[in-house]
């Protein structure tokens, strides 16, 4: 028997899933839920932050830009850490960092201190989602991958509901420091629970031991091998193109746009932000089921979401008169809710393109896409608002530039990625048939 065949026999089978898997994976998702709550808390406090720190639109956007810049910059290192250290250790580090960041933000009296706190929060936040994806892959069968990823994102989006429904009201009732400091207790709670109960994988399904060379050579090779796969690059561009319109809207600019440009009250604007989150959760379940059953639907869903989003953004920004009608704003928010689930499709291209030992690194590359686009758009909107005297129509037009760039790259890579994926599937089937039993 060849060494290759022997190694194949020794690999554990597909994890069975079940209630135990749901419980352990649920703890990881809870960590991600809290991270999303902290990440999006500025979205309902943007106007308060501008008043508290006496800053303009560009300086306000710097909060989210720095947070996402740290997040995006950490994705590949985090992917390597997950591949090397395992899920539990990386999640624990992430919880400690984002809890300290949220608590520091609560106590910040100066703009510089607040920026540092958001950077720390972004660093911890960066360690959560890739870890949760890896946890799901270790505890559930591979065929459940798309649905598990969508459900994880759905539960995470519920953290956005906490921001829009709960934190906004607490901020109004109790003020800045009590609200943000009190919310930091959530990080302490999930840290204790995961340290006690979370496991990297089910008993008997430990990953096959692999000799992992140390040093820079391994890191470069791991990143280069993941990047060389067309599926990894396609996944990154799908994530880039689909995620950022909703991310920018929820993370910072949605509330100011609805209040200052569309003449809504904060309460009405908060309800529309909530609608984006609810739509995200509903569409996520639908997309997950469709992709799990019909793998070929991945690109049509992603490109369709981009197209519909562009149409409704254009209709809103080009509507004659001072304000768009309420029905159009509602429709826009429902459509924006599909952006998050569509971005998850990027991972469904990156995952089959890479072997298990490279999953964390590949997911990190994919996850950089949407956050890089969000950083660019947050910066562009802030600069354009200051340059045009708060002309939201001009500022939000930057969305179309990023969408056009992303679509062009998706169309360029799609054939190579799909062809390579088919080759890998055929090769794996041939190898399975020839493994002696």
Structure report:
- The protein has 437 residues and is mainly alpha-helical.
- The protein has a single domain, classed as Growth Hormone, Chain: A (Up-down Bundle), CATH 1.20.1250.
- The chain contains 19 helices and no strands.
- The chain has helices at residues 3-10, 19-40, 46-53, 57-85, 87-107, 111-125, 129-139, 145-174, 176-183, 185-197, 216-228, 230-261, 266-293, 298-318, 326-336, 339-350, 359-388, 392-396, 398-434.
Q: What labels describe this entry?
A:
mainly alpha; 437 residues; 0% strand; 81% helix; Growth Hormone, Chain: A; disordered C terminus
Short note summarizing the structure:
This protein has 437 residues and is mainly α.
Spans with pLDDT under 50 lasting ≥5 residues? 1-12, 432-437
What is the fold named in CATH at topology level?
Growth Hormone, Chain: A
Helix content: over 70%
Please work out how many helical segments DSSP would assign.
19
Averaged pLDDT: 86
What's the topology here?
Elements: H1 3-10, H2 19-40, H3 46-53, H4 57-85, H5 87-107, H6 111-125, H7 129-139, H8 145-174, H9 176-183, H10 185-197, H11 216-228, H12 230-261, H13 266-293, H14 298-318, H15 326-336, H16 339-350, H17 359-388, H18 392-396, H19 398-434
Helix pairs in contact: 2-5, 2-6, 2-7, 2-8, 2-10, 4-5, 4-6, 4-17, 5-6, 5-7, 5-9, 5-10, 7-8, 7-17, 8-9, 8-13, 8-16, 12-13, 12-14, 12-16, 12-17, 12-19, 13-15, 13-16, 14-15, 14-16, 14-19, 16-17
